[in-house]
Amino acid sequence: MTFYLLLVAALLIVGFFWHRKRAKRQRREQLLATPLTAHQRIVVEELVPITRRLPRELRPKLEGKINLFLDQIAFRGQNGLEVGEEMRLSIAAQACLLVVNSPVWYDTLRNVLIYPSAFRTHRNDHDGYIVHENNHTTLGESWARGPVVLSWDHALQGGLNDEDGHNVVIHEFAHQLDSLTGHTNGIPILRKGQTYEGWEKAMLDASNEHFARVERGQRTLIDPYGATNHEEFLAEAIVTFFEKSRSLRDEEPALYQQLSELLALDPAQWA
């Protein structure tokens, strides 16, 4: 009798989790198939004008992923900031641009913290056995498995100006993609058909040239902050991919091709 009771209990537990997983999958599919409201679409187009250039066949995908993002993520205002719908839509639209045509998703992210403007962070820098305590003013942060932390002033401006090569939301969510492998090191989960050899060569050639130009004080297409390390180079390269796509394609064709394959996008061709 005890064996049968245990068997029934095990079957009930398995059934419960199967039903829960199925319901979650159905909700996900429903959200991905749901368009934005007319009002939401206007807000997104006004605050994130790059979305107007998105190919028509990708716009329903973007709207569905924005809905999925809004359902999954809790937006938490800091320092008294009250988070409104326009903030959520602007950040969600920018973040979802990176994955609009990709099966990759921000599976582990649950929270986005929003400060009114640039904020102070406390970090410990290690120098051998010595730890230096430093305060930094920053515009954004991305932590493996979340949260993403953003300055709203700069998130808003980054969305409004899609040609200046500066976008804190795209930058921080590029780090989120990078971290899905378990390591934030400039090597994200590559698409089927991409080779690590091709990725490594394109990234190293472009980043080494970028590091050298920054060290010499020369002009760079990719923001000089990308010379910090390889993960920051990837994040800034992705920002440039979206905001200065034709210039990146012309100056760094191998890098552009790798990013285009990774994200399954070709913004240099967008009208």
Describe this structure in words.
With 271 residues, this protein is an alpha/beta fold. It has a four-stranded mixed beta sheet. Strands 3-4 form a two-stranded antiparallel sheet. The longest helix is centred in the N-terminal third of the chain and has 31 residues. It is globular and about 75 Å long.
Keywords:
271 residues; alpha/beta; four-stranded mixed β-sheet; two-stranded antiparallel sheet; 10 helices
Give a quick rundown of the structure.
The protein has 271 residues and is an alpha/beta fold.
In terms of topology, how is this protein built?
Layout lengths: L1 H31 L5 H10 L11 H14 L1 E4 L7 H13 L13 E5 L3 E9 L2 E9 L1 E3 L5 E4 H9 L7 H12 L16 H20 L14 H14 L1 H7 L1 H11 L8
Parallel strand pairs: 1-2, 2-6
Antiparallel strand pairs: 3-4, 5-6
Strand tally, please?
6
Q: Average pLDDT value?
A: 91
- Alpha carbon gap, first and last residue: 70 Å
Helix and strand content put the structural class at alpha/beta
The main sheet comes to: 4 strands, mixed
How much β-strand is present in the residues?
Answer: 5-15%
Sketch the topology as an H/E string, one letter per element: HHHEHEEEEEHHHHHH
Cα radius of gyration in angstroms:
21 Å
SS summary, helix count: 10
Strand order of the largest sheet: 1-2-6-5
The backbone outline, from C-alpha atoms, is: globular
What's the helical proportion of residues? 40-55%
